[in-house]
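Hey team,

Filing this mostly as a record. A colleague (T.K.) asked me to run one chain through the structure pipeline before their review meeting, and I want the input and output archived in the tracker in case anyone asks later how it was produced. No errors, nothing strange. Just documentation.

Input sequence:
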Amino acid sequence: MKILIDDVAIECKDGDLLIDVMLNNNINIPHFCYHQDLGADGNCRMCMVEIKGQKRPQVACDTFVCENLEVSTKTKSINEVKRSILELELLNHPVDCPICDQAGECKLQDYYMDYGLYDSHLSTPKTKKGKHIDLGSNVMLDQERCVLCTRCTRFTSNITKTGELGIIGRGDNARVGVAPGHELNNPYAMNVVELCPVGALTSKDFRFKQRVWFLDSTKSICHGCSRGCNIQIDYNETKYSTEKVHRFRSRRNKQINQSFLCDYGRLSYKELNEKVISTPLPEEALKDLFKAEKKVALVSPSLSLQQLQSVQIFCKNHEIELFSLSYIDENFGDEWLRTNDMSANFAGVQELQINSSKKAFESSLENADVVINFDHKLLKNQELKNKKVIHFTTTNIKIPNEAVFAIANFAHESGTIINCDGIRQDFYATKYKSEERRLAELLEELK
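Output structure:
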């Protein structure tokens, strides 16, 4: 059916939540407490709308659509309601945007610019609360900035079911906190930072490292395990340094990870910043290695389908026996997002029918003269005596006297992977600003 929102016909289904219809159709509706993967709480009242036939404004997060529904979000009276709610939210809020880590992606800041723009009417001192409280698990809390949307408390009570966070106190003294002697401690704790719509919860890992408006972003897939959680890679390149990845953020995919990431995957971005030192062999020595009778290759099950196919063709053309072994950690997986298979694309290995028998690989390895490692973790820190080893790697190899060739990691390479449920997903390379500059300089020289 169709409903009217600001005189525009929008398609939806009977019984859909009004705020979901708006968000799914890119209609700007301010909100703090509502989150599509946490549900409604109805405490912030920022999503007020006018509905034809209703005497009072209604909250969109608690209104279900029905036939002939007509909604207005931009009337003068509704904007005044939002402005009054913002004034209440900002009553005791510190005006510290210039030093707040959330500046540039803060909803309170955005909504004030859209609807507020008023002078404070407060005649008494602001109520002060706790600052830079270390909650544990890389999470810092500034209680003064909190708007009590309860997203974080609902996450720990309803999603992780660990219940570390709660609302303490009443009135002006109400604040988010943990019980005395306890800390935030679960494998998904850093999600509360991303859920927080203001600067109350910030990441110790990212805090004061970078301003968000300097960052570029690209769509990618977490390679931490076989779940294939969708992420945004945030990165930049400053005047005096090369490109650097600063963080991973979750990218909503209702079918796989909703809007969440585990902390292990979220912090795995650090590996992408490692500079690989290549120590290649001379061309003649390399040719001699390929003349050896017994050659075996091991390829990482986290490479993309396209990379796996290239390696497979290369090995076939040079009569090299190819294997790929998965990364299994029985202690890593859980009943939600983390899996025991910590390889990103083992399903791709199986689809290409690359031999994954550990016993067969060990037998071939024992008899091989030359071993080629295509970024597999097993051989990166294992010295193979009496064998010539060549590494094509995204991270440094600490074993001496081995040939090392640097290859692009998944942040710098586009491709396709298949997750543990057989879902194919594409990821995309970050954009090299330095390459753009070099191209511009080259074009200038050609002129």
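Quick notes for T.K.: The first helix runs from residue 18 to 24. DSSP finds eleven helices and 20 strands in the chain.
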